[in-house]
């Protein structure tokens, strides 16, 4: 019998919209199920450690990218398979795995009939990231959203309504205030040099928050990650570039964007101060030097691999005589 442990984040933007326990019990009634609802980061870490000690076969996450981020720190390199159900705001990893558009039943059926696949993770100064991240205005936006979520009553409810559009709203507000540029020295096999940028992104999948397809050809299982550097000197040009990408225009059409695939990169902020690196929507590191490297096939994750069986409406079938 499969041993399945479900991590429920009650604070995630869509956690209250469904009876997740009932849905999961209905679909996985043949599995040995246990539900945990950690109330603090310390309890979260303790429950993950307990799950790995108990040799759990599968961990299911009901939450957003922040919940996923906490889990992958402990699941990397383990044989425990992982299913991230989309119950947050952006749900970037679930979307990249093909789970975002599925009914909950169809996503869960992968646990019984599917086979997990290994995906790459990215190491940033010792912290692991599954989706996208970076420095500059993208970090400023994520930091502001996290602060609003923690300090403004009702903001979590607003996020559940706005969903991924919340990132566009905050980004637009930041851009109107002007985009701060950072002087950065990059070292990698594919590109080395000093650049001035309002935003440097590290991408393990094509899109950020569904609509911002900044690395169209990047996959989380291709053995590399993408680096995208915006080198626009004028804020108006940067705004126009961000808008075009959000409208679906490939970033390679912009001569002021440098994009390449790599397995490792080191970059240093030359401004004389430490800056934030945000990944998976969480603060990963505050530093002036960032060492970024690939952890190939580090996580076993369920994706949309099971062929969906069509439902037959027997009420419309003719009687057999």
Notes on the protein architecture:
- The chain is an alpha+beta fold and 321 residues long.
- Helix 2 packs across helix 3 (65-75).
- It has helices spanning 20-27, 41-53, 65-75, 92-96, 104-113, 137-151, 155-162, 165-176, 235-246; strands at residues 3-8, 32-36, 58-63, 81-86, 117-124, 127-129, 132-136, 182-187, 193-197, 199-203, 207-208, 212-213, 225-230, 257-262, 264-269, 275-279, 282-287, 289-301.
- Residues 306-321 have low confidence and may be disordered.
- It has 9 helices and 18 strands.
- The relative contact order is 0.17.
- A hairpin with a 2-residue loop joins strand 16 and strand 17.
- The strands form 4 sheets. A 6-stranded antiparallel β-sheet has the order 6-5-18-15-8-9, covered by helices on one side.
- It starts with a strand and ends in a 20-residue tail after the last strand.
- 29% of the residues lie in helices and 31% in strands.
Low-confidence stretches: 306-321
Q: Indicate the mean pLDDT.
A: 83
Q: How large, in whole angstroms, is the Cα Rg? A: 21 Å
Count the DSSP helices. 9
Structural class: alpha+beta
Question: What keywords describe this structure?
Answer:
six-stranded antiparallel β-sheet; 2 domains; alpha+beta; 321 residues; 31% strand; Rossmann fold; Tumour Suppressor Smad4
Short précis:
The chain has 321 residues and is α+β, with helices and mostly antiparallel strands. The protein has 2 domains: 3-116, Probable inorganic polyphosphate/atp-NAD kinase, domain 1 (Rossmann fold), CATH 3.40.50; 127-297, Tumour Suppressor Smad4. It contains 9 helices and 18 strands.
